[in-house]
Design brief:
The chain is mostly helical. The chain is built from eight helices and no strands. The protein is globular. Keywords: Membrane, Transmembrane, Transmembrane helix.
């Protein structure tokens, strides 16, 4: 018998690569944040942001709520839009409503925080000491927009025929609310800047045009319905 030779185990030809220690940026992150805040404070970013919010949050709220009204009108169109497009329009309509209410809350908070108006005047219509009518219109518009948003969120509760009519009547409050907000925005604060006036003018033209198209479409539908009933008789 041949003597069995025990072969030595082959050694690993390649040594395991040792993990390389990479320099971490975490210790420098707080210093970078502090440096950024110092530069922003030096440049007056906080004051400029506050100034923009003082006069811009209301404009953003009105533009968002105007877009909400326009997309709401588009979501009811059955002549040009299919069911899928109407669903998309309804989604955009609801998203813009949430954004508009957010800007509205920010606008109210900034005005109260800077003593432009009182908390009582922001909560109770026509309770402001200096501009009761104009501030009151803004307060009323805010309440109406919130009521429209709540009824829109709980539309399923108005599923009956009579309840559906009440829901439409409540949802139509968005139009007087929008008009009151427009008057409030134009005359309650300082004279509007050129871009703000242009934004208000576009809002007015957009809603007026959409309402005119909607009324024209309804008149055509009513005439077509009368014609079909007359032909059937």
């Amino acid at each position: 018998m041949s003597r069995m030779q025990t072969l030595p185990r082959p050694r690993a030809t390649r040594a395991r690569a040792r993990p390389q220690l990479r320099p971490s940026a975490r210790p420098a992150l707080p210093a970078a944040i502090l440096l950024l805040l110092a530069v922003a404070a030096r440049a007056g970013v906080a004051e400029r942001t506050q100034e923009f919010l003082d006069f811009g949050a209301g404009v953003l709220a009105l533009v968002s709520l105007t877009s909400t009204v326009l997309w709401g009108l588009a979501a009811t169109d059955r002549r040009l839009l299919g069911s899928a497009h109407r669903l998309l329009a309804q989604g955009v309509h609801r998203g813009l409503a949430v954004a508009g209410l957010g800007f509205l809350a920010l606008h109210i908070w900034v005005k109260v925080a800077e003593d432009r108006t009182s908390t009582a005047a922001a909560a109770v219509p026509f309770a402001d000491n200096t501009q009761p009518l104009l501030i009151g219109l803004g307060t009323m518009a805010g309440y109406l927009f919130v009521a429209v948003a709540v009824t829109g969120a709980f539309r399923s509760a108005f599923s009956g025929v009579g309840s559906s009519r009440r829901w439409r009547a409540l949802h139509m409050a968005a139009y007087p609310a929008w008009g009151a907000a427009l008057v409030h925005g134009l005359h309650a604060g300082r004279p509007a800047a050129g871009w703000a006036t242009a934004a208000y003018a576009l809002c007015l033209a957009g809603v007026a045009g959409a309402l005119a198209l909607r009324m024209r479409s309804r008149l055509r539908e009513e005439r077509a319905g009368r014609g079909s009933r007359g032909g059937a008789s």
